[in-house]
Automatic annotation (TrEMBL):
Alphabetically ordered keywords of this record: Chaperone, Cytoplasm
Compartments reported by the entry: Cytoplasm
Pfam family, one: ESX-1_EspG
InterPro entries per UniProt: EspG (IPR025734)
Recorded GO CC terms: cytoplasm
Similarity comment: Belongs to the EspG family.
Name of the protein described by the UniProt record: ESX-2 secretion-associated protein EspG2
Chief location of this protein within or outside the cell: cytoplasm
Organism domain of life: Bacteria
Function: Specific chaperone for cognate PE/PPE proteins. Plays an important role in preventing aggregation of PE/PPE dimers.
Length: 147
């Protein structure tokens, strides 16, 4: 899986980021621009290096983004041609400091964004968890749509 990501996004060194977890709903509610992002991140007690990395990743002039979403055919509602769209994403963000992996996770009915170094193992693990959330789970590669 990581090989396909590297084929599409290129190979990059992982950013030297100590992992950061933010509440996605709080983030969406509190942040409107670069200033409110900085205020929100400071309220989350990020250290200086984390603050710099996350603000760089959030700035489209200083980063490039690719987002992965999982789909499974044959199990969704009729209105969407029976295609189920997974309820989370994995983003790969390239910055001057290196690659960052952003994984959307749900825990206790709350949504979080987990930012970690974009190492091959972090990206591979995030993509595997994304796929496991589909109804086919670990059997995703062998699932066939019956027409």
């Amino acid at each position: 899986m990581v090989g396909q990501v590297e084929r599409l996004c290129g190979v990059a060194e992982a950013a030297p980021l100590r992992p950061v977890t933010v509440d996605a709903d709080e983030l969406l509610h509190a942040v409107r621009d670069a200033g409110t992002l900085r205020s929100y991140l400071l309220s989350q007690r990020l250290d200086v290096d984390q603050l710099q990395m996350v603000t760089m990743a959030a700035d489209p002039t200083r980063s490039a983004h690719a987002t992965l979403v999982a789909l499974q055919a044959g199990v969704g509602p009729e209105k969407s041609a029976r295609i189920l769209v997974g309820d989370s994403t994995v983003a790969i963000v390239d910055t001057a400091a290196g690659r960052i992996c952003v994984e959307s996770v749900t825990s206790g009915q709350r949504r979080y964004q987990v930012l970690s170094p974009g190492s091959r193992s972090d990206i591979g693990g995030a993509v595997q968890r994304l796929i496991r959330r589909l109804p086919a789970g670990d059997e995703w590669y062998s699932y066939r749509r019956v027409v």
